[in-house]
C-alpha cells in the first residue's frame, strides 16, 4: 500500500488531475481479524494523505458480522471519500480498487485479476491508530461524527 | 392487438431530450411503429420548436394538442420525455388515456409527482417502464450472480455512475456546496442536476438488484467541475450512503466529470460484497486497448446550447469525435434494444416491467431524501 500511496501522491503533486475532490477506495482485505475498525482507520488515514483539506466529518456503517465496513468522509473543502474494507479469507489474495477524481482528471487503479498475476506484496493496512476510537464511535452510533482538525 | 398490427408510439419530447435516442430504439423494434410527435397545447415555445424538429427529422406529423393525440386509437404507447417539471402532470394524463408509458429518467421531479404517475398507471392497468441499465450485460451478470448465491449473503453494494462529458475544471475548488432541501427546478439549458440525472442509474440499480427497501439516506452534493452548474446553483456531483432492509449497506455516486476523465463514456461500476465473496462488474469490460499512430481524442468546442454534451443532436453539431483508445468488446450496444424489447414483452404478456413506475418512484424518494440530507447534514429516515 505504501508504494500505491506514494505513486498516487506523486501524480497529485505533479498537478495532473488538478485538485482531488472525490475518492472511491475499495479494499478486499485477507484477514481473520474481525476487528474491522483498525482496517477502516488505516484507509481513512491513507485517504487523508491525498486530500487537500482536513477531514471534517465521518459516517461509518459496518456489518454486524464485520464482513465489511464503509466510511463516507466529508472534508472541510467540500471533498468526499467513500472507503470500503471487505474482509476475505486469509488464504486468498487481496485487491485494491481505487478511483481518485480531481477537478481536472482521474486516477484509476485496479488490482489486475488473473490466475498468473504476481502481487507485488501483501496488502497491509497500517496507520490511523489515532482514528480508531472515532471510527468505533461512528459505527456504534450510526451517525455522522465530527472529526477534529 | 392482432398479430399483424404494431404498437403505435407517440413521442413526447423532441430534440435535446433523450427522445433523440428512444425514438430510434422504437424504430428498431419490429413490433412498434412511430405515429407522431406531440405535446401539451400550452407547452413552452422553445420546446415545441424542438419537438417539431424531431418530428421533421423522423418524417412524423406533429400534433400540437396532446389531448387530440391521446384520443387516437392507433396510439398504444407514449414515450415520455417532456421536462422533468411536467412529467407528473403529463404522465398521469397519458396513463389515464389508457396508454402504456415508456418513461425517461428520472421518473419525476419529486415524490408527489412520482406517486401520481404510479397511481395513474395502476388505476389504468397500463404497463410502464423507466429507462435504466438493468438490461446491460454487466447488470444481468450481477443479478445472476446474486440469484446463484455466488457471493453468499449480500452485505454491501456500491455503484458509481459518472459521465465523461463536459469541459471540467471551471468550478472553483475548495468550496462546500450549500444544498437546498427540495428540488424546485431540474431543467436548465446548460446543465442538469447530476445526482438526480445520473445518480438515478445507480440508485435504480441498487433498488433492482437488492429488491430491498431503503431505510436511511445520508449524502452530500458538490460543485467540483463546471461553472455552468454553479451558475444554475445545481450540483455536478453527489454521493449517498444508504442502509437497506436486512442491514445491507449501499453507496452510490452520480455525476458528470468531464470529457477527459475516462477513455470511454464514463464510469459505470458495481461492487457486490457478500459473506463468501466479492464481485466487481464494470460496464467498460471487456474492451480492447488500441494504441496507434493517430491523433488522440480532443473534446469538441462547447456547444452554446449544450456545453455538457448531453444530446446526440448537439454532439453532432459540435463535431464530437469518437474516443478510440478503448473499444468495447461486449454486446453492450444491444442492451438498449433489449430495454425496449423487454418493455414490449411486458405489454404483450400483461406483466409488470422490472423497472416499472413503482420501482422508478423509489429512486425519486431516495434521491430527494439525498438532497434533504445534503442540505441538513442529517441522516434521513425513509418511511
What does this structure look like?
The complex is a heterodimer of chains A (149) and B (383). Chain A is built from 3 helices and 7 strands, in the order αβαβββββαβ. Chain A is α+β, with helices and mostly antiparallel strands and 149 residues long. Chain A has a single domain, classed as Dihydrodipicolinate Reductase, domain 2, CATH 3.30.360.10. In chain A, strands 6-5-1-4-3-2-7 form a 7-stranded mixed β-sheet. The longest helix of chain A has 15 residues. Chain B has 2 domains: 120 residues, 3-Layer(aba) Sandwich (Rossmann fold), CATH 3.40.50; 212 residues, Dihydrodipicolinate Reductase, domain 2. Chain B has 12 helices and 15 strands. In chain B, α4 packs parallel to α5, α5 runs antiparallel to α12 and α8 crosses α12. Chains A and B meet through β1, β2, β3, β4 and β5 of A and β7, β8, β9, β10 and β11 of B.
Outline of chain B, from the CA principal axes? Answer: globular
Biggest contact? A-B, 38 and 44 residues
Tell me the domain tally of chain B: 2
Helical percentage of chain B? 25-40%
CATH class of chain A: Alpha Beta
Q: What is the CATH H-level superfamily of the largest domain in chain B?
A: Dihydrodipicolinate Reductase, domain 2
Concise summary:
With 149 residues, chain A is of the alpha+beta class. Chain A contains three helices and seven strands.
